[in-house]
Amino acid sequence: MKIAFHGAARAVTGSKHLITLSNKTQILLDCGMFQGMGDVTEKLNSYFGFEPKNITYMVLSHAHIDHVGLLPRLVAEGFEGRIFSTPGTMDLARILLLDSAKIQEQDADYAQRKNRGSEIEEPLYTEEDVIKTLSQFTVIDYNEDFEIDPRITLRFTDAGHILGSAAVHLNILDEGKETRITFSGDVGRYGDLLLNSPQTFRQADYILLESTYGDTLHKDLEPIENMLLEIINDTCNIRKGKVIIPAFSVGRTQELLYALNSLELKNKLPDVPYYVDSPLSLQATQVLKNHPEVYNNGVKQVLKVDDDPFAFKGLKFIELVEESKALNNDPRPCVIISASGMADSGRVKHHIRNNIGNAKNTILMVGYAEPRSLGGRLVSGARTVDIFHEQYDVIADVKSIRSMSAHGDYEDLLHFMACQDPEQVKQVFLIHGEYNVQQNFAEKLKDKGFKHIAIPQYHQEYEI
């Protein structure tokens, strides 16, 4: 049996991991889009490193674009097998992939008009490709042993990352030997603002473990809502500017709304307009409301006094493009939450372009951004940035709340691994992390008794 790493290898995006059995059965774990990788992003998304038509089964850990975003392209290029996910992941994937196809088509059209037709811009896939992809889904509940075929059993456990997110556990019988493989997906936080904590899982022989924050602790001196309050007050009430918040439509936007709603419940919410400029965010928020089983006890207590923990005075969801454009012509102070989270695509990129040159405004990053993405360059302190092939001086204030992450820090990751007997784990593969971070995290794992740790390179293959 072999395993190859075709994405999220010494990087935090484009998750794709391919297991190949001796009889040529192939199981693909995730099929994510590369994001924020600079000039090489397009090239990375156009080449899988394997033949889609040869994939037998596809298992999806969760519905973030860097884990699901290339799935319709996989289908368009010949994959005809079943796609396994939790019900929540399928619900989110439906809206996210349709939105992704639409955004790609819009961005391609905008770029081509900007270049006056000198370059042909093509989207990675269309809405038709998404609809075909959705027809291939099979949903499996958490903690259910599902027989994919007589040699392969699949189980999902709650990873606590976003709605529907799962750690993937495979029992594979190959050449008379049973092998237990765990793929962590993205591991959430213990004590998350909204969701249940990650579940324990049974013993594995091989573990593919994400490591996004493998050398970081999410320790801030004050609660997230207090930091939001300070930034909104300073920007909107004192400087009379706008707060632009790039936020993933799935997960991060709902956390922001919950924190702002908490401020209103405490009569602290600043009296300014709040806009969520993302049709997908509206849909994702509704999907989350339809799955109250994922809420932690804190949210359940809030629901006893507030029947909608994601709504508050002054909040408006923006759907039409014309409404989105109008925000840029409105000089009044406000808060705009818009996708994408790394600020590399979608409506937020236009909002940043229109507001980055004014010192009254604040661009607030609320989670991880790949260093080469627009959000990553802003967080790193760049004084000029490229937006739609034009250079802009960074005059607006740039702030970051790094603790607003759906990814666990290194203590959360070690907690996740604590249910395992290190002596029985033959290999830990560190994925979904920057290389220097992974090297540091590997030492922390060794201190916990995990002796065999590999950090795969892009397209590297291992015999297991």
TrEMBL record:
<dbReference type="InterPro" id="IPR011108">
    <property type="entry name" value="RMMBL"/>
</dbReference>
<dbReference type="InterPro" id="IPR036866">
    <property type="entry name" value="RibonucZ/Hydroxyglut_hydro"/>
</dbReference>
<dbReference type="Pfam" id="PF10996">
    <property type="entry name" value="Beta-Casp"/>
</dbReference>
<dbReference type="GO" id="GO:0016787">
    <property type="term" value="F:hydrolase activity"/>
</dbReference>
<dbReference type="Pfam" id="PF07521">
    <property type="entry name" value="RMMBL"/>
</dbReference>
<dbReference type="InterPro" id="IPR022712">
    <property type="entry name" value="Beta_Casp"/>
</dbReference>
<dbReference type="InterPro" id="IPR001279">
    <property type="entry name" value="Metallo-B-lactamas"/>
</dbReference>
<keyword id="KW-0378">Hydrolase</keyword>
<dbReference type="Pfam" id="PF00753">
    <property type="entry name" value="Lactamase_B"/>
</dbReference>
<protein>
    <submittedName>
        <fullName>Metallo-beta-lactamase family protein</fullName>
    </submittedName>
</protein>
<dbReference type="InterPro" id="IPR050698">
    <property type="entry name" value="MBL"/>
</dbReference>
<feature type="domain" description="Metallo-beta-lactamase">
    <location>
        <begin position="13"/>
        <end position="248"/>
    </location>
</feature>
<feature type="domain" description="Beta-Casp">
    <location>
        <begin position="253"/>
        <end position="378"/>
    </location>
</feature>
<dbReference type="GO" id="GO:0004521">
    <property type="term" value="F:RNA endonuclease activity"/>
</dbReference>
